[in-house]
Specification:
Oligomer: single chain
Strand content: under 5%
CATH architecture: Up-down Bundle
Helix content: over 70%
Number of helices: 3
Distance between the termini: 41 Å
Largest sheet: none
CATH class: Mainly Alpha
Low-confidence stretches: none
Structural class: mainly alpha
Number of strands: 0
CATH topology: Substrate Binding Domain Of Dnak, Chain:A, Domain 2
Order of helices and strands: HHH
Amino acid sequence: MERCFEARTRAVERATVAAVRRIGSARSPAAARRLLASQRAWAAYRRAECRSRADVREGGSLAGVEAAACRLDLGRARLAALRLRLRAVAGP
């Protein structure tokens, strides 16, 4: 089950990288740097949050599944937010 979450997460991460690149290329160099800094901060948050969520199952066989599900959920939410931003950058 954990592998399924991880495979889906990799797909979301590829789409996220593509969205960040597209947004960054449409902005000034300074704005692109801030976007990258934001993405790094979000990735750090995701690591910490998902470790914390997995602690609920600490020592159990479901800890890895809990962490993997968390990474997928948060990744999907981040991608949705980036897609909204991409639409705003692209304009009408």
